[in-house]
Amino acid sequence: MRVYLGLAAKGRDIPPQVLASAREAIESAFPVPAEVIRSGEWHGAGVSLFGWSNEPDDSRLPGLLHPDGGRIVGVNGHLADPADVSRLPDDSVGGAFSAWIARDGELTASTAINRVCPVFYAETPDLHVIGSRALLVHLVAQQVDRIDYDVLALQTMVRQGFFLSDETPYKGVSALRPATTIAIRGGSRTISETPLPEAGPAPDAPRLKRAAIGELAEALLATVEPLRNASEPVNLALTGGRDTRILAALLHAAKVPFRVTTNGLDTHPDVILARRIAAALKVEHTVIAPPQTAAKDAVLVEHPLERAWETLRTCEGMTSAYESIVGYLPYSGKPTMSGQSGETLRAGSLNLLQTDLSDKALLRRITTTFVKDEKLFTAEANEHARELARPWQARRNRLEALDHIYIWYKVGRWQASARAGSLRRGDPVRPFLDNRVARAALSLDQGWRLSEEVIYTLILRFAPQLRDVPIEGKPWRFTDGLKKRWPWSHVPPPSMPTQKTGGGWSWRTSPGPDLTAVLREQVLGGLDALAPIVDPDEVRALFADPVVKKPGTAWHLYTVSTMLTGLYPGKQPEGLERITVSRPDPGR
Predict the structure, then answer these.
(1) pLDDT of 142-193, one tens digit each?
(2) For residues 588 and 586, what is the distance between their CA atoms, to the nearest angstrom?
(3) Across 279-349, where does the E strand assignment appear?
(4) Are strands 234-237 and 188-193 parallel, antiparallel or unpaired?
C-alpha cells in the first residue's frame, strides 16, 4: 500500500512546521505498524510531495517517487504497464490507480474512471493540501491540534454505511470525482473532469455485437498481460458464479499461468462447478474445506469497540464497522486475483437488484439509495440527502444513472475505502477495476450489459470449452425465453441452484441481546453528538427491543458515534471482554 501527500504553497514557501506535521501525522493515517513504513520526499519551489509505503523494498515499478523528465511521479495502486508512468495523467492508461505529479511551482493529482484509488483535497489560507488518505489531509490542513468533523455529511454513513457524495467525515476535505485532475499552479487551483462515457445503443446483429465487445475483450486481456512474467502462477479464488469464471477464462486466453482455489465442501455447487472449470481449462484446483466444528448455539465475538477502532483506523470513518475489513498482514508481492467489481460488466449492482425496470421503479431505486429511512433523520439531514439525489433523479436515462451511481459511489467510495484493508497486504491485479476496462464497459448499452449477454459472450470468447459448464444460482438473464432454433445454435445449460446449507446466520445481522446492549449503550450515550443528523426519539425506538431489528443501521450509528466521541485517532482499546451472541434458534 502506498500513501501520498502533496503540498503547494499559495505564497513562496511551505512553512517548515507544516512539513514536520506531515511527517508526524503519517503514523495516525497509515494503518500499518510504524516500523514497516518506508518514506520518500521531494521538495521544489513552493511544492512538496511525500510518499510512504509498507512495501519491503523498491522492486515494484514505478518506484515510490519516480523521476520522469524533470518531474516526480507517484502512483497509488498499479499500472497495467509500468512504462505508462510517462503518459500520466492520461485517461487511456490501464490499471487501477491515482497519479501524483510534482515539479517546481506545480502539483497535480488525478483519479481514474472509478476513483477506486482516491484523491482527497483541502485548502487553507496559505496552502493547498492533496493526499490519498482523507485523515492525513485533514491533520495537515488543520490550524489547531484537533479534528473537526462534518457531521451533516455523515448522514449518508448512517443510512448506507458509506458515502454517497464527494464529502468526507472531515470538515473541509473533499474527495476528487472520477476521471478528474486537480492542479495547482502558481498557488491557484483548477479542477478538470472528464465525463463518464455515454453508452451507445445495443447492437442488433451478431457481427455488430462481436465488434462492440471486442474493445472490452482487448482491455481485459491487457490487464493480465504483465502477469505472464510473474515469478509464480496467479492464485485465483474461483466460485461457481459469473465474475470469477470470466477471470479464469481471461487468464486462460492470455496464456497466464494460474491455479484456482475454492472454499467449500465437495457437495457445494461452488466446488462442483469450479472443479469442472479447472478440468476444462487444465489448471490446478485446490479445495479448502471449512473447518468442521460441533454445532454451537452461541459464539464469542470481539467487542464492537475493538472492531470499530480497526475499521475507523483502516477506512477513516468512510466504511461502517458492520463490514468485515481484511485484517493486516505483512505486504506480499504474490500475484492474486478475485472477482471484485465484476458488476461493472453487468450495469452495476444497483441495476442488478431490480426486477422491475419501469421508469417509476428505477427512479424509486435512485431516490431510496440516497434518502433511505427518512423517519430516522432530522429535516436538515433529509434535505441534504435530497440535494445529493437531485442530479441523479434528473437524468432521463435511469439505467445509466444507476450504472454511474455504482461507479461513483459503490466502487469509488465504498470499495475504495473498504479495500484499504486488503491493500496493506499487497497490490493485486483487479481486472474489473482497470481504468480501460471500466471505460470500455460503460460505453456499452446498460440494458445489454444487464442482460448478461456481454459477460457470457466474453467467457466463450476467451474459453469456448466452458460453454457447457452451468452457472450457479439464477440462470443467465438473456436466456429467458431463449430456445434452440437450429441444430448448430447454442443455448447455455440450465443453472445449478444455490445450495441452502441450513446455516446462514451471522452475529452481525443477528446480534442477540448482549451485543445489542453494547451497541445501544454507545449510541444512546452519544446522542448529543448525533443530534444534528438523527431524531433522538427514533433512535431510542430503534433500540427499544432487546434485540435490535435493524442491525445494519445500528452498526452504522455505532460507527459514527464512536468516531464523533473520539475513539480514533487514539490508542487501541485494550482489556475489553468478548461478547456472547446466541443463535436466534439453535435447533435450526
Answers:
(1) 977 889 999 999 999 999 999 999 999 999 999 999 999 999 999 999 999 9
(2) 6
(3) 285-288, 298-301, 336-337
(4) unpaired
